[in-house]
Write a structure and sequence with these properties.
Jelly Rolls, about 50% strand, about 0% helix, mainly beta
Length: about 120
């Protein structure tokens, strides 16, 4: 067993081409701790987001702070704390903060690839 205290996990700026604007990530559980899933807190500054992308596995986003948008090519949803978004493998989507608020979510994924 391992207990992770989020306040002790270093936040690092996301520098991948996947992101637009300032995005900070805290990787809480990765391949060093678990074989079956990844757990990351992602915080978007107002207006920051990621570009359209897909995953080869399912993704769950649990909103913990602020106001965000989760969108596909056909629909866009405003999400707030306490809401959960399920994104099936292969669905082209993006998520990020609204222009007037920051946005944080916990991302739960299984090992796989992100394509954009």
């Amino acid at each position: 067993m391992k207990i992770v205290k989020t306040s002790e996990v270093k936040a690092e700026e996301a520098t991948s081409a996947l992101f637009r604007g300032k995005v900070v990530r805290q990787t809480l559980i990765d391949e060093k701790l678990a074989k079956e899933f990844r757990l990351t807190v992602v915080t978007f500054s107002p207006g920051a987001r990621n570009v359209f992308h897909t995953h080869t596995t399912d993704q769950v986003l649990y909103v913990i702070d602020g106001k965000g948008i989760v969108a596909t090519e056909k629909e866009e949803h405003l999400v707030t704390p306490g809401m959960v978004a399920f994104i099936p493998a292969g669905e082209r989507h993006w998520h990020g903060a609204t222009e007037d608020a920051s946005f944080s979510h916990v991302s739960i994924t299984t090992p796989g690839q992100t394509k954009f």
